[in-house]
Give the backbone structure.
Amino acid sequence: MNRQDLFELAGRNMRNARLRNALTTMGIAVGVASLVAMLSLGIGLQGFANHQLLKSGMFQTVFVTGKQDMRNMEQNADAKPEESPVLDDDARKKIAALPGVEEVAPEMRAMSEVEYGDKTNFTLLAGLPPSAREEDAVEKVDGRFFSSANADEVLVQRDFAKKLETNPESVLGKTLTVRYAERQSGESAGSFSIERKEKQFRVVGLLDDEPFGGMRMISRARVFLPTQTAEAMNLMQPADTQQLVRSAPGARTYSMLAVRMESAAYAEKVEESVKKMNYSAYSYLDATKSIRRFFAVLDMFLGIFGSLALAVASLAIVNTLVMAVLERRREIGIMKALGASDADVKKLFFAEAATMGLIGGTLGVALGWIIGRAINFGTNLYLHKMKMPAENLWTVPIWLVVGAVVFAVLVSVLAGIYPAARAARLDPVQALRYE
Amino acid sequence: MDEETGTVAVEVCSASRYYTMGEAIVRAVDDVSFTIGRGEFAALLGPSGSGKSTVLNLLAGLDRLSAGRILVAGRDLSTMDSEALARYRRLTVGMIFQSFNLVPTMTLADNIELPLRFAETPRSERRNRVLELLTNVGLAQRAGHKPTELSGGEQQRGAIARALANRPSVLLADEPTGNLDSRNGQEVMALLRELNEKMGVTVLMVTHDPALAARYARKSLHMADGKLVSTVEAMR
């Protein structure tokens, strides 16, 4: 029997027991809906978390410090000076030459006094690398980003702008004066001097959120300037005194370098190379390993719970088809007498199971999608109430749609194995015996 | 497909069918041999339980021999696997039953189309073939009716049309008039005779009615207790 005839007969058989087949199909739909709902929640949450993390460019960035950095002094206190080189321009060049490295930017921070009109504020100044924009580290800029890597322009945090003007937007295009400490080479090898300087900047943009999702230290700053400009200004860094008490204070050193790579795939290798150069390296990839594992396990559990309903539905299929075999005993006998082979009979029941799976699966995906939308809507209503931005916690990727329908058909056909075998095994002589 | 050998349509050689019921062995058909010529109208007679229906089921390829051989159109049924046997039922034999056995949920036309579907006849041919078959049995106007909307005689004529859908060379009829009143029974028998004479279809009819056999069949095979007890050939 060819496929078209098979599905025609299957469809006819199903219409003859419409209510029963519709109920079973609805059972599959509910099962698939629960599976889709659970999995899309898992995928959505994972995507949400990933988005938050990726937004900060974290996975693409490795942070390099000297071993005797203040942050891990305790841990490496006994590191010998020769095993703990200073982070200088040489090191910066070497790191920049590593495969996959796109940009090496020093983390620049300095205390400064900002004069705007007749107002003077004391605040933290920080350098933002050009990549900050591509990385989406700066989520929302009113106005624009720096016009060039060494422009005399600044971005200011909206809260800070509110201190300057009642309408924060009006600071855009205005000029502010920054007073800062400039580090100058000392007269002798073991010294440097500091001088008070001032410089004027144009305000080009307002930042709503903290750059890098608030994950990096420079985020606490309120005024941002291009890293290259900051470097040219020779800003006195908090770590400079640390370098002074150690060796060669003449050369420029960095307290921390943010190494940005083409993709997160290089992170592990770069980290390894940097460690071989006797520096400390840290990336968030390590920290998020457990988070990613958590999501894998979460997805699995959500999938298992979602599948339970489908498992119940598959029992309903078995039941429906076994009933159909009993009911259609005589009809199966007739078909065999007319020349249907065992395989034809088997295929007919598989076709019925697959049809229920296909219809149920399709309805289920639609139902799951609607449930997802509803929950997403509810969540966002809550977020809105809490004055938080709306988030998409619910993702139904196309592979899930296709996969769920295919899975439903597969489960249904599996459920059809026993009834189909039973129908095929039916002895036509017994089935046709006149009652 | 139908490579008929000579003048013999059906050849049954020492055919036996045993059933085991608990410890006991029931010999439903016990060492039965006979032949039916091509185009012959034969009747298989006997009281109920004599094994005549079992012989018919064996010939229909619905049941399997315990011993012996059955050749239909020159082909040995005992060597066929279940797939080949299904093809044999589809193309070589047609079967009609006492209780008609039309599928109740299908229209008459759909019932007749069923064996054509199994034979994978192209759709375009099917429609014409169904109409032709219905016309042959005089039911062209009844194509869209469900079996319950037809009289017994109409149902049996429809069943005959269905049995002939794939142009089999042998028609097996199990008590075809058993559920019919005498007028409808006669109509059905007349149709069987017409098909036998005009189209050359070999007919083997199982009946318990010797008068019916005597009236229509050229050869009457009498069975009792699973054995063939006598063969009567009418000279006509």
